[in-house]
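Our consortium's second objective concerns turning raw sequence data into structural hypotheses that experimental partners can test. To show how far this objective has progressed, the report includes one record in full. It was chosen at random from the queue rather than selected for favorable results. The single chain below, 191 residues long, was entered without modification.
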Amino acid sequence: MPYPGALRALALAGTLTLMPSTFAAPPVLDFSKPEAVRAFRVVNDDVMGGVSTSRLSPVAGAMRFEGTVSLDNNGGFASFRGPVRFPAGSEALSLTVRGDGRRYKLTLKLDDRPGTPQYQAAFVAPPDWRTLHFRAGDFSASFRGRAVEAPAVRFAEVQYVGLLISDKQAGTFRIEVKGITTEAGASKAGN
């Protein structure tokens, strides 16, 4: 028996609201594709005289970021960064990673000008594949390692994304990233 007009619209609206949480969003960045890996570049402390080293490489279904952080010559960080465009309405980011148990930061930049701060959200790399979720409030603005005042990040304005290892964590590191997806506000209905 068909629904009366108002009930049918209500039933259809409820179904559409639940759809985003029922189906996984396609990745904004899918590192199982080698061309996605090639769009990223390393940025280490050698830009300031340090001697840390790192590299990016495609591995089975992911991108590997590995190297050595050195505190010599006032160094102490390794990172990578590449272009990204998150859809309008993105309210959360999901990062699928596995790694060495070290502390990393997911980094976001609104542009590539030298004086622009970056937004950072810290996490510990799990030993097995796990998807980590980040909302705008998880990110803090910084410039050259120091906290700065800035408005909350809006994911749709981000042009660059990357990972950073720092905080005097000297030694070798390795983390693998499968991809990054986004969640829109409507996806909260099914959570």
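The partners drew two points from this record. Helices lie at 5-22, 34-38. The radius of gyration is 19 Å. Both points have been shared with the crystallography group to help prioritize constructs.
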